[in-house]
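Much of the work behind modern protein science is quiet bookkeeping, done one molecule at a time. The protein below has been through that process, and both of its lines are reproduced in full.


***
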Amino acid sequence: MKTALVVDDQANVRRLIRDYLTQEGFRVVEAENGAQALLAARRERPDVILLDIMMPEMNGYDTIRAYRREGSAPIILLTARQDEAEKVLGLELGADDYVTKPFGMRELVARIHAVLRRVAGRGDGGAVEDETLRAADITLDRATHAVAVAGRVISLTPSEFELLSTLMRTPGRVYSRAQLLERLTGDEGESFERTIDTHIRNLRAKIEPTPAAPIYIETVFGVGYRFRNTADQGK
């Protein structure tokens, strides 16, 4: 049974999500603010965190900052904000996805299953892929969800891991933002393609020697991204 931590200052919202997820087979833990969420996350070790942005005492952004220093469970933001910049900020801080209030429960559950598949190393819901990818100085192990760059272990969010895995599996192939977005969410949903740009920027900050001049993940302007062919590394 997977555990979902639901963090929202509105009791009726938590109750609605709790009742639906319980019917879907989840164990649900609740918190009404960020401080409570951090304590619950340490105690319960949730498989996924559903996190409201606008909360008193400790908002969602501060909660992400604090949690990402100690935990790697996927985070889905629950936001009433329509402003794209607000959503991008959450992604930049380490969230994996978001849904905009009011949202349908079926959509929320679909997003949860999508991020859980990334953690489990499942591409499209099939068997866990026991696969190790190596390119240049990077080693990626899908079975253990581990990444090392020049022997140094790197902590990636589930979304960052899935993007790197997708790009490394076919070096030289160019993926459009829409293709990468579909890889993450299972469908295009409501997410905007800038989501991919944000995850790629975060990923580069972790694996590239000089993120502003990337040598692993290249931007193909007007198209999308690709992982450089091993033969091209160092040229």
Residues 105-120 form the longest helix (16 residues).
